[in-house]
């Protein structure tokens, strides 16, 4: 059952949420000399379960909206959902119960943190919950509208909110450096989510899900994907220049190289399997870059 849960919630990608939380907490330690281990652990649990809730609520509503079914039946499309609903592995009731159970844990953590660190913590939590739910849920469904709303939402959910929020939990105040620190990891995570649309954009089009890949087509979407990559690493340089990161954080720049090389092997139009290396390289770049940024802040705090 635990193995099934890990697949249903896509636990393997949870580092993309835990890394920004760690960055925000380390920012508090480096800039303000403050670090509360208990608050950090509660923040990790809350943010982690919120991320898993987001994964599962997206699967639930994609199933209701017919997107997952289209991905299963469309020739050449690669489904990125767990398949538990489309294949009947779990009943809708079980899937929904686990989904909302995760939300309950995240909400409890948010309430505890708001009592310990201040009511603005609830603002971060509520914004994150609204983004997660209405990404694919009606009546808003901004992930279906193809106007860049979903990309902005991912940048906020996996960059700004967890980094700035984790910093605020530790210090009970805000700092512009936390916002700058959120941009490299936030943009890289946005790139992951953007690139994953290439795997099933034909099915998305069939189901009426208007991602930017559907709206723009492969050629323009691939160009924008490269732009996101450049922006992510440019923001890293800006963060160093603004003293949000130490100079040796620039050692993270080479983590872009393997991903950049994957773009060179793609044509303007490709079969869906050709995008699997792009997805893998995007995730690796994000995790490796995030790990180096974490290490650089730890070193800066120790010396």
Supply the key terms.
globular; 303 residues
Give a written overview of the molecule.
With 303 residues, the protein is mainly α. The protein is 72% helix and 0% strand. It is built from 13 helices and no strands. It is globular and about 55 Å long. The mean pLDDT is 88.
Short description:
This protein has helices at residues 2-9, 15-32, 37-65, 67-73, 92-117, 120-134, 149-171, 176-196, 201-207, 212-216, 218-241, 257-264, 276-302.
Order of helices and strands: HHHHHHHHHHHHH
Q: State the total count of DSSP E strands.
A: 0
Strand content: under 5%
Largest sheet: none
Question: Helix count?
Answer: 13
Mean pLDDT reading: 88
| Helicity level | over 70%
Quickly give the structural class. Answer: mainly alpha
Shape: globular
Distance between the first and last residues' Cα: 45 Å
Instruction: Determine Rg (CA atoms, Å).
Output: 19 Å
Q: Give unreliable regions as ranges.
A: none
Break the fold down into its secondary structure elements and pairings.
Blueprint: H1 2-9, H2 15-32, H3 37-65, H4 67-73, H5 92-117, H6 120-134, H7 149-171, H8 176-196, H9 201-207, H10 212-216, H11 218-241, H12 257-264, H13 276-302
Helix pairs in contact: 2-3, 2-7, 2-8, 2-13, 3-5, 3-6, 3-7, 4-9, 5-6, 5-7, 6-7, 7-8, 8-11, 8-13, 12-13
């Amino acid at each position: 059952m635990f193995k099934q849960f890990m697949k249903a919630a896509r636990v393997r990608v949870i580092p993309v949420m835990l890394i920004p939380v760690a960055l925000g907490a380390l920012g508090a330690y480096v800039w303000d000399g403050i670090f509360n281990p208990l608050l950090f652990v509660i923040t990790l649990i809350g943010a982690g379960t919120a991320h898993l809730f987001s994964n599962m609520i997206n699967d639930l509503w994609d199933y209701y909206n017919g997107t997952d079914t289209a991905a299963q039946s469309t020739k050449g499309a690669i489904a990125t959902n767990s398949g538990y609903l489309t294949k009947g592995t779990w009943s809708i009731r079980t899937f929904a119960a686990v989904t909302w159970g995760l939300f309950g844990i995240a909400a409890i953590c948010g309430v505890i943190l708001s009592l310990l660190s201040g009511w603005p913590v609830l603002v971060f939590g509520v914004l994150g919950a609204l983004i997660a739910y209405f990404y694919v849920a009606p009546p808003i469904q901004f992930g279906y509208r193809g106007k860049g709303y979903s990309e902005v939402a991912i940048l906020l959910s996996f960059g700004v909110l967890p980094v700035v929020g984790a910093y605020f939990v530790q210090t009970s105040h805000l700092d512009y450096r936390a916002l700058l620190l959120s941009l490299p990891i936030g943009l890289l995570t946005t790139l992951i989510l953007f690139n994953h649309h290439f795997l099933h954009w034909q099915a998305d089009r069939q189901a009426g899900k208007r991602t930017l890949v559907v709206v723009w087509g492969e050629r323009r979407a691939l160009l924008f994907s490269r732009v996101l990559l450049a922006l992510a690493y440019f923001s890293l340089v800006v963060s160093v220049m603004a003293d949000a990161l130490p100079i040796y954080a620039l050692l993270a720049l080479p983590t872009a190289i393997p991903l950049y090389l994957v773009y060179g092997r793609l044509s303007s139009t490709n079969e869906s399997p050709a995008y699997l290396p792009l997805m893998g390289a995007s995730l690796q770049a994000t995790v490796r870059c995030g790990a180096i940024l974490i290490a650089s802040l730890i070193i800066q705090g120790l010396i």
